[in-house]
Amino acid sequence: MNSYLSIQLEQTELWLLAEKAIYWPEHQALLIADIHFGKAAAYRRLGQPVPHGTTQANLQRLDALLARFRCEQLIFLGDFLHAPESQTPAVLAQLHEWRAKHSGLAITLIRGNHDRRAGDPPTSLGMRVVPEPLLLGPFALQHEPDPHPTHHVLAGHLHPAFRLSGKGRQSLRLPCFCIGERLSLLPAFGDFTGTMTVTAEDRWQIYVVGDGEVWPLARPVPVRPGICP
């Protein structure tokens, strides 16, 4: 089972994880995009019947990753909290309980669009909160997938997914990593998030996540004028 896949990007080794995150061995860093804590709570406060337990489920998945990999830092690429309504006593209590178990872990949040609306997490969570981009090695760590003049961008925000098609009109849409020449996208880590379907354009190498594995899709052969594939 390919629970992670090692790739070389900008002459740097990154591990694409089946849990929809990236582990950077050189910096012992775990990169998480779009966890959207408290999204379900925010919807319930608006009267929408949505599932309970998403915050705890996301924290349990984080715990499992931190137990598997040697991590000195955890970096959130934006959208830590979903909305102002997400900062309920129950959600904040779960976050503080989880943080107490990882008190020695350096945590950085790069503000995303939802963070700017929801407000920074409580200072009692002991997180460093910074604007984008955060430059680290050859990468610009961002929330928005905007190009950077000197660094390869690793970003979230779009929640990419790819639709696999089979016989008999069967199809399955799965989260994916999109790796490009100067810009790459992480899938949303949060359980209760939507997705944006991407296509196998020439500029992406797509790595699909599903059933505890991550695997690359074959890249399409570009069609040149006058040449039939």
TrEMBL record:
CDD domains tied to this protein: MPP_PF1019
Domain called Calcineurin-like phosphoesterase: residue spans: 30-115
GO molecular function: helicase activity; hydrolase activity
Magnesium is among the record's keywords: no
Keywords of this entry: ATP-binding, Helicase, Hydrolase, Nucleotide-binding
Top-level taxonomic group: Bacteria
Name of the protein this chain belongs to: DEAD/DEAH box helicase
Organism per entry: Stutzerimonas stutzeri
Lineage: Bacteria, Pseudomonadati, Pseudomonadota, Gammaproteobacteria, Pseudomonadales
